[in-house]
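Per reviewer request, we include the raw input and output of the structure prediction for the construct analysed in the revised manuscript.
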Amino acid sequence: MHTGPALVPEAPPPVEKDRRRSARAARNTDAWLRSPTAKNPRDREHATIVNQSRHGVSLRVQRPLPTGTYYILQIGEAELTKLTEVRIVSCRKGEEGVFVVGAQFC
Protein backbone atom coordinates (compact mmCIF):
# COMPACT_ATOMS: atom_id res chain seq x y z
CA MET A 1 0.00 0.00 0.00
CA HIS A 2 1.36 3.42 -1.06
CA THR A 3 1.17 6.12 1.62
CA GLY A 4 3.33 8.91 0.13
CA PRO A 5 2.21 11.73 -2.15
CA ALA A 6 1.09 10.72 -5.60
CA LEU A 7 3.66 11.33 -8.29
CA VAL A 8 2.40 13.72 -10.93
CA PRO A 9 4.33 13.90 -14.18
CA GLU A 10 5.97 17.27 -14.76
CA ALA A 11 4.14 19.40 -17.31
CA PRO A 12 6.05 20.12 -20.51
CA PRO A 13 7.19 23.72 -20.96
CA PRO A 14 4.63 25.93 -22.71
CA VAL A 15 5.04 26.15 -26.46
CA GLU A 16 5.43 29.72 -27.65
CA LYS A 17 2.80 30.48 -30.26
CA ASP A 18 3.99 32.05 -33.48
CA ARG A 19 2.33 35.48 -33.62
CA ARG A 20 2.48 35.74 -37.40
CA ARG A 21 -0.82 35.76 -39.26
CA SER A 22 0.51 33.78 -42.23
CA ALA A 23 3.31 31.35 -43.03
CA ARG A 24 6.72 32.65 -44.07
CA ALA A 25 8.59 31.47 -47.16
CA ALA A 26 12.39 31.70 -47.29
CA ARG A 27 13.77 33.98 -50.00
CA ASN A 28 17.09 35.38 -51.11
CA THR A 29 15.84 38.13 -53.42
CA ASP A 30 17.25 41.54 -54.28
CA ALA A 31 15.01 44.48 -53.49
CA TRP A 32 15.27 48.25 -53.08
CA LEU A 33 13.83 50.69 -50.55
CA ARG A 34 13.11 54.34 -51.18
CA SER A 35 11.29 57.10 -49.38
CA PRO A 36 7.69 57.62 -50.51
CA THR A 37 8.57 61.32 -50.96
CA ALA A 38 11.70 60.75 -53.08
CA LYS A 39 11.63 62.71 -56.34
CA ASN A 40 14.26 60.62 -58.13
CA PRO A 41 13.46 56.87 -58.45
CA ARG A 42 17.22 56.21 -58.31
CA ASP A 43 17.32 57.53 -54.71
CA ARG A 44 17.04 54.07 -53.25
CA GLU A 45 19.04 51.61 -51.22
CA HIS A 46 19.63 47.92 -51.73
CA ALA A 47 18.00 45.31 -49.49
CA THR A 48 17.84 41.53 -49.54
CA ILE A 49 14.56 39.79 -48.81
CA VAL A 50 15.24 37.00 -46.29
CA ASN A 51 11.68 35.72 -46.01
CA GLN A 52 8.22 36.81 -47.04
CA SER A 53 4.63 36.16 -46.04
CA ARG A 54 1.25 37.48 -47.15
CA HIS A 55 1.56 40.31 -44.62
CA GLY A 56 5.21 41.36 -44.72
CA VAL A 57 8.89 40.72 -45.34
CA SER A 58 12.13 40.34 -43.46
CA LEU A 59 14.97 42.31 -45.06
CA ARG A 60 18.73 42.66 -44.63
CA VAL A 61 19.88 46.27 -45.04
CA GLN A 62 23.13 48.19 -44.49
CA ARG A 63 21.84 50.73 -41.97
CA PRO A 64 19.25 50.77 -39.18
CA LEU A 65 15.76 51.89 -40.18
CA PRO A 66 13.54 53.58 -37.58
CA THR A 67 10.42 51.65 -36.61
CA GLY A 68 7.18 53.28 -37.67
CA THR A 69 8.66 54.76 -40.86
CA TYR A 70 7.32 54.05 -44.34
CA TYR A 71 9.17 53.07 -47.51
CA ILE A 72 8.39 51.98 -51.03
CA LEU A 73 9.70 48.44 -51.52
CA GLN A 74 10.67 47.53 -55.07
CA ILE A 75 11.06 43.85 -55.87
CA GLY A 76 12.49 42.92 -59.26
CA GLU A 77 13.57 45.02 -62.23
CA ALA A 78 12.18 46.19 -65.58
CA GLU A 79 8.86 44.62 -66.60
CA LEU A 80 8.84 42.25 -63.59
CA THR A 81 8.90 45.03 -60.99
CA LYS A 82 6.52 44.98 -58.03
CA LEU A 83 6.15 48.15 -55.92
CA THR A 84 4.45 48.20 -52.55
CA GLU A 85 4.47 50.44 -49.50
CA VAL A 86 5.79 48.95 -46.25
CA ARG A 87 5.96 50.08 -42.62
CA ILE A 88 9.05 49.20 -40.58
CA VAL A 89 7.94 47.28 -37.49
CA SER A 90 11.30 46.02 -36.17
CA CYS A 91 15.02 46.53 -36.69
CA ARG A 92 17.91 44.71 -35.04
CA LYS A 93 21.61 44.40 -35.66
CA GLY A 94 22.39 41.14 -37.40
CA GLU A 95 25.59 39.35 -38.28
CA GLU A 96 28.40 40.89 -40.34
CA GLY A 97 27.27 44.45 -39.64
CA VAL A 98 23.95 44.26 -41.47
CA PHE A 99 20.56 45.01 -39.97
CA VAL A 100 17.54 42.71 -40.05
CA VAL A 101 14.33 44.64 -40.60
CA GLY A 102 10.74 43.47 -40.30
CA ALA A 103 8.40 45.33 -42.64
CA GLN A 104 4.62 45.04 -42.86
CA PHE A 105 2.81 45.51 -46.17
CA CYS A 106 0.45 48.49 -46.10
